[in-house]
Amino acid sequence: MNKRLSLFTRCLILFLLVWLFLRFFIGGVWSVPLPASVIAMYVVLILLAILVHVSVEDDRFREFLRPIKETLIDDDKKIRRIALGTLIPLVLLGFTFSKVSTKADPPAALRTAHPAPPAELKYGDKVIGLTQEVENPFRHLEKDDKEAFKAHAENGRRVYYQNCFYCHGDDLDGEGHFAHGLNPLPANFQDPGIIPNFQESFFFWRISKGGPGLPPAATPWDSAMPVWEDHLTEEEIWDVIIFLSEYTGYKPRTFGEADH
Amino acid sequence: MRCISADSKNRLYFYLGLLVIYAVLAIAPAFAQQDATDVDYRPFPKIGSRSAAWIAAQLHLLFGSFILGVPMFAVVIEFVGMRTKDKRYDKMAQEFIKLCMGAFSTTALLGGVLVFVLIWCYPQVMNRLTGIFGPTMIFYVILFFGETFTLYLYSYGWDRMQGAVSKMWHLFLGVLLNVFGTAIMFVSNAWLTYQTSPAIMGPDHKPIALHDEETGEFIGTLWQAVNNYTWMPVNIHRLIGNIAFGGAIVGAYSAFRFLVAKTKEDRAHYDWMGYTGNFIALCGLIPLPFAGYWLGREIYMFNNTMGINMMGSLFSWLFIIQAVMIGVLFIGANYYLWSGMTRIKGGEIYARYRPYMIAIIVLCVAIWMTPRTLIMSPKEMAAMGGTNHPLVGFFGLMTAKNTAVNIIILATFLSFLFYRRSGKAPTVGWRKIGNISIAAVLGLAVAAIIAIGLAGFKVESDFRVNVLTPVQVLIALAVMIAVTVTDLVMYRKAMRSNDINWGQMTDRSQYVLILLAITFTSLMGLMGYARSGLRENWHIFGVMPDTSPDAFTPLLGDAVNVIAVIMVIFFALVGFIFWIGLWGDKKKAERATVTAEVGVGDD
Q1: Are B288 and B350 part of one and the same domain?
Q2: Mean pLDDT across A85-96
Q3: B353 assigned to some structural domain
Q4: Is the minimum CB–CB distance between A259 and chain B shorter than 8 Å?
Q5: Could you say which architecture CATH assigns to the domain A120-248?
C-alpha cells in the first residue's frame, strides 16, 4: 500500500484529512463550526509542517518533488498535465469569485472585546477614584462580616434577575432569550477568560457606562449593553458584581495581593 | 599605482562617521537651547515628524542592538578559543568584530540623524528631557568615547595582541567594550522608559508619581527619573534581545557567505559560523519570553489601563502577529537543527523522532497563535453560538499559551540534545538508565506543565500569575539544566563515530537562517511600535501631552507599512556592509595569491 502511494500523495492526503477534520469533524460532529480565519491559520500551519518534514533531507525532498517533476515533464503524463492545467485555474477562479462576489452578510471584523477603561472611574459625573485603585467597597465583608456579604450577594442576585438575565442568561452563560438577536453577543460570565482577567473596577465601568461608554479603541461601538448608571445605584452595581463572581466561582483580578 | 586597501577604507568611513556624530553631539545642546523660547513643533517635510523620528529611531536601534549584542558573544568565543587553543574560534570572533566595526559608524550616524530629527521636530520635548536628564547626556557622551576607543583598540589590536600576556589584555579590552556598551544602553533606556512610565515603585508596588499633580512640574531626583518603573525590565529585555538579534544577523551573514562561497573551505567555515550564530540566537531567544513577561507585568502595575491597552485592547492584535513570528522563529530554528543533523554521520537515527517532534511543535504553535477574540463574520459567530468557540476558545487564554510555549521550548531543547548526540555513542555503563531517566524526566515535566496549565483555567488569576506561571517556567528551566548536566557527563568519554562534515548543508537551511534574521528584525520593529505607542497621545505619559498633528496612535496596518519600509532600509544597509566585507576579503585573497606567486618566482 505504502509502496504504491508516493510521498507527495501521502502528504496531500494528510493535508486533506486535517482540513476535513477541522471543517467537518470539529465543526459538525464534535462541536460547533470554526470561523474561516481559524481554519485558514491551522491549515497553513499543517502545510508548513509537511514542508518542513519533507524538505530537511535532500533525498526525501527529491522524492517529494518527483511526482511534480514527472507531471510537468514526462511524455506519458500528458493527460494529467491537461487535467491539472484546467483544474487549477478553475479552482482559483472559484476562489476569486467567492471573494469578490457581493454578499449579504457583513464582513468579518476585528473586535476588541475588552477595551482599556478610562483612568478615572465615574458613576454619572461623580468621580469615584482611579480605575486602577478603586476596590469594591463591600468586598472586605467577605472576611469581616460574612452575613453582610451574603446580603450583598443576595441583593446582586435580585438585581441580576431583574435586569440582566434577559441578555446574559439565567445561568450567566450569555444565553439569555434576547441574546441571539444581538451582535456582539452578551458576555458569557462562565467563560474563564472574563471575570478572572479584570478588576472589579473594570466591571463597574462596563456596567455603569455600557455600550455607549465604549472608548474609541473599541470599534465599531455597536454593543447593546445598556447604561446601568441610569437605573441602578452605585451599591447595586457593586452588589451585582459580587453576585457574578459568587455564582460563577471566579474571582476578579486584584493586583499585588498575592505577592505577600 | 597604489589603491586604498579595504581595511583603510573601513577606517576612513569609521572616522568620518565618528566626526559627524561628535559634531552632532557638540551642536545639539545649542540647538535645544535656542528653541526653548518659541515653537512647540516643526513639521518634517513630506513624511511628517512622527514617521521621520520613528524611522530614524528604529534604524538606530536595530544597528545599535547589533553592535551591542555581537561583542558580548565575541568575547566569549575569543575566550573559548584561548582556552581550547583552537585558532578557528579566535578567527571567528575576529570576523564578528569586523562586522561590528562596519556597523558601528552607521549606528553613530543614525543616532546623529535621530537627534537632529528630534531637536528639529520636537524642540520642547527635547528641552524638557534635557532639563531632567542633562547630566546623563554628558555621561552618555563620555561613555560613547570609551566605547569608540575600546572598540577601535579591540578590533585593530586583534592580530597584534596575540602573545600570552597581551591576549589577556585583549580579552580585558573586550570585556571593557561590553561594559561601555551596556552602560550606554542603560543610560539611553532611562530616557525612553521615563517617557513611558514617569513614576517609581513605592511600597506595596503602588506607583509614586514624579510630578506635581497640578503643574506637572518635575519633583523627583535624577536617579528616580532614571530608575523608573520600566527601566530595569527594559534593560534586561533588551540585553537578552541584543544577544539573540546579534546572533541572528551574524547567522544571516554566514548564510549569505555560505551561499556565495566558491571553495569547500569557505563553505565549511561559514556553515560552522552560521551554526554558531543560530546557537547564540537560540540561547537569547529562550529566556526572552520570560523577560518580556516581567516587563509586561511591570507595565500592568505602573498603569492598569496601559496594561489592558497592551494585551487586551489597542495592541492586542499586534501580539497575535508577534505570536505568529515567534512560532516562525521556533519552527525555523528547529528546522535548522534538524538540517544540521544530516551533516553528521550517525545523525540519521534521530530522524525517526522528527515527525513526532514536528507534530508537537506545530500543535503548540497552533495553540500559541490562536487569538482570544477570533476574526469572524456575524454569521460565523451565530453558527458558533457565541464569541468564543467551546473548544478553541480555551486556546486564547494565557494559561494555555504559557503551557504551549513551555512545551515548544522543551521540544526545541530536545532537538538540540539530539543534535549534540548525533554521531556519538556513550560508553558509560549506566547509559541505558541514563537515557531512560532523561526520557522520564522530560515526559514528567511535560505532564506537569500540562497539568499546571489545566489548573490555570480554574484558579484565581493572581494565583495563576504569581505562582502557577513561574512554576511552569521553573520546571522547564530546571529540567533543561538537569538534563544538560546528565548528558554532559554521559557523553564526556563518548565514542565518536565521525566528525561533523561542515559545509554539507542544504541551501534551504541557509535561507532559513536568513528568514530567522528577518523575523527577528520585524519582531523588533513591531515591539518598538508597541513600546512607543503605549504612551498614546503623550510625550511623557500622563505629564506632557502630545499636541502635534501626529499625536494619534497609528493603526496596526499603517504601522506595519512603516516597519516594512524600515526593514527594507535596514537590510539594504546591512547588505551593503556585508558586501563591502566580501570585497575586502577578495582583495586580501588576491594579494595572498600574488605574494604566493612572487614567492615561487623568487625561488
Answers
A1: no
A2: 94
A3: yes
A4: yes
A5: Orthogonal Bundle (1.10)
Cell numbers linked to A116: 482599556
Cell of B212: 506635581
Q: Are residues B485 and B555 in the same domain?
A: no
Domain identity same for B97 and B141: yes
Searching chain B, which residue's CA lies closest to the CA of residue A53?
Answer: B355
- Helix orientation angle between B316-341 and B354-369, rounded to the nearest 10 degrees: 170
Three cell numbers at A123?
458613576
Q: Which of A61, A193, A218 sits opposite B397 (nearest CB)?
A: A193
Using CB atoms, which residue from A42, A112, A131 is nearest to B305? Answer: A131
Using pLDDT thresholds of 50, 70 and 90, give the confidence band for residue A1. Answer: very low
Angstrom distance (rounded) from CA A114 to CA B33 = 44
pLDDT at A258 over 50: no
B516 Cα to chain A: minimum distance (Å): 15
Q: B388 vs A191: CB contact, 8 Å cut-off?
A: yes
Q: Is A127 on the interface with B (CB under 8 A)?
A: no
Of B308, B342, B389, Cβ closest to residue A117: B308
pLDDT at B413: 92
Tell me: do B328 and B404 sit in the same domain: no
Last residue of a domain, one of B499, B514, B541: B499
Q: What residues in B contact A112, CB-CB < 8 Å?
A: 312-314, 316, 373
B328 and B198 housed in the same domain: yes
Residue B482 lies in a domain: yes
> Do B127 and B102 share a structural domain?
yes
Q: What is the pLDDT of residue B493?
A: 77
Residues 46-65 of A with CB under 8 A from B: 46, 48-49, 52-53, 55-58, 61
Residues of chain A with Cβ-Cβ distance to B394 below 8 Å are: 192
| CA-based nearest residue in chain B for residue A168 | B386
Q: What are the tens digits of pLDDT across the range B300-320?
A: 888 888 888 887 777 878 888
A140 CB-side CA count, 13 A: 4
Rounded average pLDDT over A189-213: 90
**Cis status of the peptide bond prior to A117, with omega within 30 of 0:** no
Give the pLDDT mean for B197-221. 85
Residue B178 within a domain? yes
Pair B367, A164: CB distance under 8 Å:
no
> Over the stretch A15-34, which tens digit does the pLDDT of each residue have?
999 999 999 998 888 888 88
Q: CB A34 to CB B396 under 8 A? A: no
Range B257-262 average pLDDT: 91
Q: B598 pLDDT band (50/70/90 cuts)? A: very low
Question: CA–CA separation, B82 vs A242, rounded Å?
Answer: 66
Q: Do B494 and B508 reside in the same domain of the chain?
A: no
Considering the domain architecture, whether residues B223 and B183 belong to the same structural domain is answered as yes
pTM value is: 0.83
Reading phi first (left if > 0) and then psi (alpha if -120 to 50, else beta), residue B552 is in beta
* pLDDT tens for each residue of B451-495: 999 988 877 777 887 788 889 989 999 999 999 999 888 888 777
Does A109 touch chain B if contact means CB atoms closer than 8 Å?
yes
The partner residue sitting opposite A258, judged by closest CB among B359, B394, B463, is B463
Task: Suggest the residue from B319, B368, B460 to mutate for an interface test with chain A (most A CBs closer than 10 A).
Answer: B460
Q: Which domain holds residue B159?
A: 40-334+502-582
Q: Is the ipTM of this complex over 0.85?
A: no
Task: Report cis status (omega within 30 of 0) of the bond before B378.
Answer: no
All 3 cell numbers of residue A207? 456596567
Q: Specify if B19 maps to a domain.
A: no
Tell me if chain B has a CB within 8 Å of the CB of A193.
yes
The span from the CA of B596 to the CA of B603, in Å, is 11
d(CA B369, CA A218) in angstroms, rounded, equals: 22
Instruction: Write out pLDDT tens, residues B43-84.
Output: 888 888 899 999 999 999 999 999 999 999 999 999 999 998
The chain-wide mean pLDDT, for chain B, equals: 86
CATH 1.10.760 location in chain A: 120-248
Count of structural domains within chain B = 2
